[in-house]
């Protein structure tokens, strides 16, 4: 990895030209992070395999019924209605991001995130911004590095998968009123990029800005054809009435919402536990069982049956909420006292209404490396960091990587919510395609 420190003048120019794209980003990786194409392909293959096994687990244990999965996870009737509105997990048309640690040259799959609320696409596509820095351009030139831009490939594949049967469609990025103030700038950037790339009409709005009429939902007086959902389960459970008119329109088939909540349910960490725990592995082949052992950290449901195990193994385990994201609610046993750990376990086990509220997962030590971090305002510094790779697929197509890092002396959890630095990934071998359009020469004009 290149560790040249950009000059303050270079950074000022970069941040000035990037404008609002970087304004709300607390820590951006500005050294070119170059991963071998072979490793990226290995990440993509592991992500696809994990998605296969999650789908197989849902079929083996729940008959493929996502509503049954959601009910087992303890979700409310409101959430079950949303899952019923889009009950299929459509492997061909879903955005996926796996979170991966390198473990002695093998990918260790920490999480699998599915659906339209998968984050990081904008930051994963900052290649052109970083290439404004002469130091980055020179490092990329010397190493003959190339890149996939996830945001661009995602945009074309969204059009192909969900919008191609419409004439002049309008797609609405819909975020909750609760989250919109923090997300507005980022969503505006993504919407602008989406329009620039595909020429598709797009708007950003909250549920309150969607009006229900007899023939559908309208945003600022224009009929919405497709909702790109950014609101999440926590939003539904916090304020279900805020979204009722959207659900009614979906049930009446007056609007489409691809990658619905079935995708979100399939990304539950409880399904990792069902894959990892021998008690639930009946029906897996010997080869699949061995793959799980090598590539998935030991993961167990946090239940009364596993309470003694969780207490005994505190120093090598962490607790993760089954439906959490962004690192929220994670507690590391090796950073907690016995009393804190026991209290958190007791809190989860006290709710009999949810049988899979949380999991305990084996600690995996991440690989480390030097990165250069910049903040808006000119601060730039180098740190030795723990490294978490994110691998994006759309359907079965690899569309790029993102990198998140934390200083080694900080918390072991690496996520954007707790201040991790984030940036794009270059790669060091000849790429196989230029973008999603190259998959099919007749894809777009």
Compact description:
The chain is of the alpha+beta class. Helices cover 36% and strands 23% of the residues.
List the helices and strands and how they pair.
Blueprint: H1 8-18, H2 20-23, E1 28-29, E2 33-35, H3 37-62, H4 66-72, H5 77-85, E3 95-103, E4 106-114, H6 127-130, H7 134-142, H8 150-163, E5 170-174, H9 180-198, E6 201-205, E7 210-213, E8 216-219, E9 222-223, E10 226-229, H10 233-238, H11 244-251, H12 261-266, H13 269-276, H14 286-295, E11 299-301, H15 307-312, E12 317-321, E13 331-332, H16 338-349, E14 358-362, E15 368-374, E16 380-394, E17 397-407, E18 421-427
Parallel strand pairs: 2-18, 5-6, 5-10
Antiparallel strand pairs: 1-15, 3-4, 3-16, 7-8, 8-9, 11-14, 12-13, 12-14, 15-16, 16-17, 17-18
Write up this protein:
The chain has 445 residues and is α+β, with helices and mostly antiparallel strands. It contains 16 helices and 18 strands. It has helices at 8-18, 20-23, 37-62, 66-72, 77-85, 127-130, 134-142, 150-163, 180-198, 233-238, 244-251, 261-266, 269-276, 286-295, 307-312, 338-349, and strands at residues 28-29, 33-35, 95-103, 106-114, 170-174, 201-205, 210-213, 216-219, 222-223, 226-229, 299-301, 317-321, 331-332, 358-362, 368-374, 380-394, 397-407, 421-427. The strands form four sheets. Strands 1, 2, 3, 4, 15, 16, 17 and 18 form an eight-stranded mixed sheet that branches. Strands 11-14-12-13 form a four-stranded antiparallel sheet. A three-stranded parallel sheet has the order 6-5-10, covered by helices on one side. β8 and β9 form a beta hairpin. α4 runs antiparallel to α5 (77-85) and α8 (150-163) crosses α9 (180-198). The longest helix has 26 residues, at 37-62. The relative contact order is 0.20. The model is unreliable at 431-445 (pLDDT under 50).
